[in-house]
Amino acid sequence: ALVDKGEHRHFMAKEIHEQPEVVGHTISAYLDPVARRVTLPEGGLDFGRIDKLTLSACGTAYYAGLIAKYWFETYAKLPVEADIASELRYRDVPYMPGGAALFVSQSGETADTLAALKDAKAAGQQTCAVVNVPESTMAREADAIYPTHAGPEIGVASTKAFTCQLATLACLAIGAGVARGVLSREEEERLVGALLEVPRHLAEALAMDEALRDLAHEMSGARDVLYLGRGVSFPLAMEGALKLKEISYIHAEGYAAGELKHGPIALIDEAVPVIVLAPKDALFEKTVSNMQEVMARGGKCCLISDEAGLAEAARGGELWGRVPVPSLPEGRLTGLLAPLIYAVPVQLLAYHAAVAKGTDVDQPRNLAKSVTVE
Ligand code: AGP
């Protein structure tokens, strides 16, 4: 089928704006909105019988997997090991009986991810794949598949496939928690209820599109940008940095906020914008205190948080940028929803910075949409 850009200037913009809809489709494949339960497809992994999950992918799909690692640990108490596929396939992984391996891929054709899947299968692991192309090689090779319903993604920079991977993985983590007897019926209902609100929060977050443009334009003059986050926001910080590098060609790093003083804080001066991802979860105060350390050294910080978070952090001094995102339900639920919602400002910042620089947003130099050779 022919896909066009509609009213948008680039496929990437169109795909960013499709997220409420496609994440909605993806969620409805794995949740029953009336009963507020997770409904995982027949023939999938039996999470009740697994004692370890190995998770692997490349690039953006890997960052989705890393976020899911936190979720599987929190909601299902399932030990997870995550690694990029180009490493996993060449490690001497001691796969144990009772383990399963999960691979994440938009295309289902990435050479390293496919090779890692075949190895895990040959080593006796149950394998499954979260893929956006149901007729792909990975979908055929894996014992079970969990399709994402993002629709065709044309932009080389992955956006809607990422949030649909997160949506699928969130459902899997909750389903695993139920199967393992970790989540009560009430907890399942609360988590499912929260996930059902994601499309609405995404639509709200997309309303900031225009507002982010000026900030992104300013950022587009930088040579280096740092992204900071803790917990589930740490992989999202890496995803933000990857997005920015690949389409704007600005050097960027995603760092765990707590790791800053172990080296990268030496980079800080007024020329390095620092993007801080700080949802109001249990780690908010810790992240903000890392941000204040940066500010105390003359660093210019842009805080992405909700209004309450921005107000609280404002006491620490003048921010270079403030990005308000919709406020999310408290506590454990924030950790589930934040990566999906905070993905939007992260994508928009990279998009507008690239547009400001005049790069080929949908087809950045040197990159292929799917890396089918090693
Ligand atoms: C994302 O913006 C990248 N272009 C890239 O990292 C991509 O996510 C990676 O190559 C994995 O591709 P896949 O999901 O098709 O396996």
TrEMBL record:
Residue runs in coiled coils: none
Any single GO BP term: protein N-linked glycosylation
Domain SIS: 43-182, 215-364
GO cellular component: cytosol
Main location: cytoplasm
Catalyzed reactions per annotation: D-fructose 6-phosphate + L-glutamine = D-glucosamine 6-phosphate + L-glutamate
Subunit note: Homodimer.
Function description: Catalyzes the first step in hexosamine metabolism, converting fructose-6P into glucosamine-6P using glutamine as a nitrogen source.
Protein's name according to its UniProt entry: Glutamine--fructose-6-phosphate aminotransferase [isomerizing]
Source species: Parvularcula dongshanensis
Residues of the full protein shown: 245 to 618 of 618
